[in-house]
Design a protein that fits this description.
Blueprint lengths: L3 E10 L5 E6 L4 E5 L8 H4 L9 E9 L2 E8 L4 E7 L11 E5 L6 E8 L9 E8 L3 E8 L5 E2 L3 E4 L5 E8 L4 E8 L4 E8 L5 E9 L7 E7 L2 E6 L3 E6 L5 E6 L7 E5 L4 E6 L1 E6 L6
Parallel strand pairs: 7-11
Antiparallel strand pairs: 1-2, 1-4, 2-3, 4-5, 5-6, 6-7, 8-9, 9-10, 10-12, 13-14, 14-15, 15-16, 17-18, 18-19, 19-20, 21-22, 22-23
Length: 284
């Protein structure tokens, strides 16, 4: 039986010359030591190690006894590493198995999700990244793919950096994507993948009049979209038409993000410190 679980890491300490320190939203913390690559063939040489750039975000997919991690990097690429789930806690070099090529601009955030297992040993993954020059990139990754993978889809969405995004899979081939931009924008998009290999992305709505600083975190919560920006504002939007439902002051300087908990009517905002903020009543 194949088991696939998606979860995401948020980097809490940037890359040093020897290590990357990252942790998930729960309890686990991993120290990634300098990656050592196996020089198997000419193509493998093209795959950089994780020590060459800063890790901006990590998206992980647990498949059977392996954790597949996709790391968005400041060098404009996404790098894939695979870790056995039963690995002992120790300092250990982790090889980069695949480099997903970008466009020479920082990949600000990455998300990976499983489409459908073809069989127990062959999985098909879509990897989405947003970049510092306003592009969205999509790659296909599967077991046994080439060491270097080029994007299957690339499109300019804004003229400034796309800082963050969240996705909800509506069906096998349709995804809702909400994106926060450095230009203070929050926008909702529908991405479709057709059987003939053609991709399309359509803008449903865009708002840039409420938050007055870069949007650093977005989250889809049922019929609502929540966004958080550097100006310490949390805004709530109707997912259908993009109308503002409410906005409140978070009260943490240099706000870098939030962890909303709609069912508890609260959010934890972090920046120069961390604060708990009560959210207005909403219907999800």
């Amino acid at each position: 039986m194949c088991i696939a679980i998606l979860f995401h890491f948020h980097v809490v300490w940037s890359v040093t010359k020897k290590s990357i320190f990252s942790g998930n939203d729960g309890e686990d913390v991993i120290l990634w030591n300098k990656t050592i690559l196996e020089d198997k063939d000419k193509k493998q040489k093209e795959v950089d190690d994780l020590n060459d750039s800063r890790i901006m975000s990590v998206s992980c997919l647990q498949y059977d006894d392996t954790i597949i991690c996709f790391c968005s990097c400041s060098d404009g690429n996404v790098k894939c590493v695979q870790v056995p789930i039963n690995v002992k806690t120790e300092f250990k070099s982790i090889p980069v198995t695949t480099k997903l090529e970008g466009v020479n601009h920082t990949v600000m955030q990455v998300r990976a999700f499983l489409t459908e297992p073809k069989n127990e040993k062959n999985i098909d993954v879509r990897v989405i990244g947003v970049t510092s020059n306003g592009k969205i990139l999509i790659w296909r990754w599967h077991n046994g793919c080439e060491p270097v993978v080029k994007p299957v889809f690339s499109k300019d969405l804004r003229r400034s950096a796309l800082m963050c995004f969240d996705i909800v899979c509506k069906s096998k081939n349709v995804i809702s994507i909400v994106i926060g931009g450095d230009d203070c924008s929050v926008s909702l998009w529908t991405f479709s993948e057709f059987k003939n290999g053609v991709f399309s992305i359509q803008n449903e709505w865009s708002q840039d009049q409420v938050q007055r600083s870069g949007v650093v975190n977005v989250k889809m919560c049922g019929d609502l979209v929540l966004s958080c920006s550097n100006d310490q504002i949390i805004a709530c939007w109707d997912i259908l038409d993009g109308k503002l439902v409410w906005n409140i002051y978070a009260g943490v300087s240099d706000c870098q993000g939030f962890v909303p908990q709609i069912e508890r009517k609260m959010a934890l905002c972090f920046g120069n410190g961390i604060v708990a903020v009560s959210l207005p009543s909403v219907n999800v």
